[in-house]
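for the recovery benchmark. tokens below, seq after
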């Protein structure tokens, strides 16, 4: 009975590990495919993965994920800065016109 429980526990852990490895592999494949590098470099990444430990793959995923997210948020940040500049310029124009109109009324 105890051996059956231990065997079942080991089987569940093995299934969870296999599932985790599959998910990690999919994520790693997506991140490598999305890199802005040559096809040769991508292939080199995939070639060396066979020799990686699970821990090394996790670290590589972390690095690539950080790079991927950084690239995506840089674009958003640049767009936001550009939009804020436009809003700032429009506001400055309105304030300048308002000040000119006010000055004219005060001189009349």
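predicted aa per position
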């Amino acid at each position: 009975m105890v051996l059956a429980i231990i065997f079942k526990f080991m089987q569940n852990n093995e299934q969870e590990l296999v599932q985790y490895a599959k998910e990690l592999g999919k994520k790693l494949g997506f991140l490598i495919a999305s890199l802005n590098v040559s096809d040769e470099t991508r292939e080199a990444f995939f070639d060396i993965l066979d020799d990686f430990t699970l821990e090394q793959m996790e670290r590589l995923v972390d690095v690539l994920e950080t790079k991927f997210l950084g690239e995506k948020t840089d674009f958003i940040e640049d767009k936001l800065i550009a939009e804020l500049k436009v809003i700032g310029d429009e506001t400055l124009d309105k304030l300048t016109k308002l000040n000119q109109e006010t000055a004219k009324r005060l001189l009349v």
